[in-house]
Design goal:
Blueprint (H helix, E strand, L loop, with lengths): L1 E4 L5 H10 L13 H9 L2 E7 L2 E9 L4 E7 L8 H15 L4 E7 L3 H8 L3 E5 L4 E7 L1
Antiparallel strand pairs: 1-2, 2-3, 3-4, 5-7, 6-7
């Protein structure tokens, strides 16, 4: 497995992964704009995991706020450590950017919620949209 910075050429595969997940399905794709994706790729932290020269997952972190904005793995490649590797590298880069804490939100009762709990994230309750808010010291 290789973790590297995302490129424009990765975008079709990233889009396919995001639209192919079984949980945290994006109900309104217009909520994620091309400009926002480009900003993460060009200005912030946007990483991909590759296996056998194929992008199998991605993660995005906001170096300004400490937010983990996205972590998604192709359903056919789950359970192989890609999510953990992407999250670890994203957190390392947030720490290098000067953050002592990272935060994120995800749906309650999901595998994602269990994943974050297993990996040391602290539940802070629910946001106004009904998402579980997590924080983690870096």
């Amino acid at each position: 497995m290789t973790i590297r910075k995302a490129t424009v050429a990765d975008q079709p595969r990233i889009h396919a992964i995001r639209m192919g997940v079984k949980e945290n399905v994006l109900s309104d794709p217009s909520k994620v704009t091309d400009e926002e994706v480009a900003w993460y790729r060009e200005q912030a932290i946007f990483l991909v995991a590759e296996e056998d020269n194929e992008v199998v997952g991605f993660a995005c972190g906001n170096h300004l706020s400490g937010l983990v904005w996205a972590l998604f793995i192709d359903p056919g490649h789950e359970g192989r450590g890609h999510g953990r590797a992407l999250l670890d590298e994203t957190l390392a880069r947030l720490k290098a950017a000067g953050h002592s804490q990272a935060h994120l939100n995800t749906g309650g009762g999901t595998r994602a919620e269990r994943f974050y709990r297993r990996h040391g994230w602290r539940d802070m309750g629910y946001d106004l949209g009904g998402q579980v808010v997590f924080v983690r010291s870096l």
